[in-house]
# Entry
Amino acid sequence: MRELDDRARAILTGNDRGGYTVPTRGLYPYQWNWDSAFAAMGFSAFDPDRAWRELETLFAAQWETGMVPHIIFHEVDPGYFPGPDVWQTHRQPPTTGITQPPVAATAARRIYERDHDRARLAALYPKMLAWHRWFAAHRLDRGAVCIAHPWEAGRDNAPDWDGAMAGVDSSGVGEYTRRDTAHVDAAMRPQKIDYDRYLSILYFGRDTGWDAAEIAANGPFFVADPSMTFILLRANRDLAVLAGVLGEDSGEIEGWIAELEAGAETLWNADGEYYDSRDVRTGTFANSLSCASYLCWYAGIDNRRMLEHLRSVLGRVRYGVPSYDPEGPEFNALRYWRGPVWGVVNFLIADGLAAAGHEVQADRIRADTRALIERNGFFEYFDPLEGRPAGGDNFTWTAAIWLIWAG
Ligand code: 2M8
# Structure
């Protein structure tokens, strides 16, 4: 599809703000962490220099603690809420105080395989290592990676968080004006109660001065998440390969891999027989079979029961993979992370399936993703039942995965 290839490249270059890429114009006017990693992979298909640059710009905003923030507010834009005035991290450029899924090392490996720029890889390597070390120091519970805010997982309003979010007191958040619903249909976005709680958790972190230890110990929301756990596990495997390329010792990384492999098994919900989110404060599972559950292969973990779940869910939707079980009580075909298909998650799931030899499922997911984009264009997400487009248009990560996989 030459025409769609051209459009995908035009979306990446059109969303380029000079060294960083916005997810889409209007709705998301800043640099987002994992979006940037996908943008970098997309650029690697036609402009390797720009691909490296995307990661370099991301890591230029790394905190001295090692954390790489979830948003970098390069140029303040009143079209997005909450902005730097709310986060108050007092940095230049301003950033948020939380992180996002660590896809960057996996992106760096992919870029390096296409462009053997050893010097640029060597400059990024210690930064990626420091970020992964930060996760190991501050975000593990029994070896599984925890999120301190739903925005960290990037699956903002997933039913995975409903139980833990119900315990967040948002009575003190006061008045505020959302901007997201001025850009897209409110029926496709989180609800007001969700935003109240997002802000309440944010205010807790802000009041600690963004102290990671205090947030882990006492934050109002702390959930062990399969998507973060699987993505970091995979990122560590890729980082260990890059250590080999650079002649660095990978012993520390191998230790994290073993710890995360054990941690992933603490997310096994024995009742439902799938990988699930676990509320660290209460010790309870979310009972949510979501797209995160299917990232086990991406992390190098094969699981027969998960394959059965995947076959079953693909048999119940026209377009896979739905972000939440279509027969689950909270399923909603259009509301963001509560049902819609996300091309970018499909890419991760299928990448893992193909590597594990599950070609039938990998091919189905790729074909569905391609069909959704051919039918609708490069939208943020899609209805898994009727194939309708949802969220923002001309979306960077949807264009990126088209160029490297779906197209
Ligand atoms: C969405 O999240 C942001 C907050 O981070 C938002 O809704 O305002 C999520 O889909 C997240 O995964 C993504 O990185 C971000 C930008 O595409 O948008």
User: Anything to note?
Assistant: The mean pLDDT is 98. The chain has 17 helices and ten strands. The domain at 2-406 is CATH 1.50.10.10 (Glycosyltransferase).
